[in-house]
Amino acid sequence: MIQELLAYFNPLDYLGIWLFTAFILAFFVSWSTFPAIFKVSEAKQLMDEPSSRSVHASRTPNLGGIGIFFSLVVVITTFGGLLDTKILLLLLGGMTVLFFLGLKDDLLILSPKKKFIGQLLAALVLIIFTDTRIMGFFGIFGITILPYWFSVIFTLFVYILIINAYNLIDGVDGLAGSLALFACAAFSYVFFKTEDASMITIAVATIGSLLPFLRLNFSKKNKIFMGDTGSMIIGFLVAFFVVRFISEAQVVRTSTFYKSAPVLAVAIVFFPLLDTLRIFFIRLIIHKTSPFKADRNHLHHCYLNLGFTHVHTTLVVVVINILIFILALLIKDIDIHLQLLIVLCVGSFLYGSIFIYCGLFKIKTNSKMPEHVR
Predict the structure, then answer these.
(1) Maximum Cα–Cα distance for the chain, whole Å?
(2) DSSP character for 252?
(3) pTM
(4) Residue 171, helix vs strand vs coil
(5) Where is it chiefly localized (predicted)?
(6) Is the pLDDT of residue 55 over 80?
């Protein structure tokens, strides 16, 4: 009898209860995991040591990504049997690869080359075996359908770009986690509109896993960082949501977002992409150094130099990104080229005051830490 009920069960018929359960489960597992992470970190001295470019002055546990990962594992293994099992298992496999790479980097330091290879492997397996890829540009630049090989390469590029974008912005309390929270909320909305039960379940579960982490990440007493473990996992998930959303919108011509999916995806990850492209330009063109060489030229560092607190920095960045997404939703039915132009111009304008103040070609490389920074 149970098997018959499960065979005909459709999460979309009970979506409210289904998503609430997934959220609560992820939240509970994440919440329950952090006390153990604190104890192990303190007992084994697994702490992030402050450096010359750090925005904190005390030794802090940096294994917050473990709690996020475990909560998502529990949700996927518990709910996955009634969803798109193949995609979720491959997604879990990719997350596991990045989990161990990130964990090793947080504990022992891993070379950028090895991290890059691991990211490629995790993304490539998901692309090849699920055929979830960006198949075209929706007429942007006059390109509709891409050759298969180029589609795979471009999708890989999107994965690598977004994974590393979230890794690079993880420099201020709550910033990477809050932007990931917003991204998951935005994708929950668009996947709800497209009735993609598997993706909306994972997006809502990710929100549940991030909330306990953010409470601690913003805390002054029991602070914890997500580390590379967490930033790579959430970057990978957001990248997958981007690719899945664009891919499904392109396949289903009757989709609500058929004419706007790429622009909406860009709007959702606008700040991480903007900061990453900016920092690569500064490092490669201005300073002529490795794009992976750490410095204090990120936009969040510019906010701190202006005297903003960590909370104010995160709040301003996230609110602006939300406004960009809302704008993209409002103009989703006009010509896609005009959509893209408006989003890029307005988004750049909203963040432009930071560029103007710091001076794009007069970047401060040895600025002193603001007094409020711990």
Answers:
(1) 70
(2) -
(3) 0.90
(4) coil
(5) membrane
(6) no
